[in-house]
Amino acid sequence: MGLAHGTIGWADVAVPDTAVGEAFYTGLFGWTTETSSDDSMPYTMFAKDGKVVAGMGPLSPDQQAAGQPPVWTPYVIVDDIDATHDRAKELGARILMEPIQILDAGSMFFALDPVGAAIGFWQSGAHDGAQVFNEVNTMVWNDLGCRDVDAATAFYTALLGWGSEAMDMAGSEYTVFMVGDRANGGVSDISTTLPDQIPAHWLTWFRVESASDAAARTVELGGSVMKEPADTPMGVTAILTDPAGAVFAVIETEQADGQPDR
């Protein structure tokens, strides 16, 4: 069954050295890999138990020279890539890459939303996003940190038909995005929690058996710990980086339903 329009259904990481990236993520999450044989567009699929869960691509020399950092990017599954592209522009997004067809896999574009966070959009062909979510060592959540929650919420609800529900999260307001009756990521205000030089960004979360073990293993594999494991209302969380500096988060939790069941 295909993922519903508006679902955050995929994430990938762009790094300067994919061999280093592969060693890190397979060592951390136990993933296996399969890399395309097309040298003009190499791409690595990460899999758990034979089911794809995330991807990885190289940062080109030109991208590195332009200052593009290593980064995890979530993708929203959409029914019509061209209509979504046009509507995103109307709503104030800046297009980073125009729609492009990726062989028979699908089509995509990248944009900066009106609050300045980069996000991808994907219309499925043969590739319909991750094949498993919410399990240990798979994607479980994505959230947007920005300094204008109202503007972000207005953009995504108008573009994708997302619902939104504000809630209290340990004394701070957190807005959950919804696709139908299903949670689909969220947004929070980082004005008072992060330095001004850190821009708006999406953060991809993976479920782990132990956040403390994941943090320790990250360091062993050449990554770093940005935020030490800590108890939260959702579970034990940590924010980590891979050896290239791409940021992601992990959560140790007994209940995980932040992504669709497949």
From TrEMBL:
CDD domains registered for this protein in UniProt: SgaA_N_like
Domain VOC: 7-124, 138-253
Gene3D superfamilies on file: 2,3-Dihydroxybiphenyl 1,2-Dioxygenase, domain 1
Pfam families hit by this protein: Glyoxalase (PF00903), Glyoxalase_6 (PF18029)
Xref: PANTHER family: GB|AAF24581.1, GLYOXALASE-RELATED
Annotated protein name in UniProt: VOC domain-containing protein
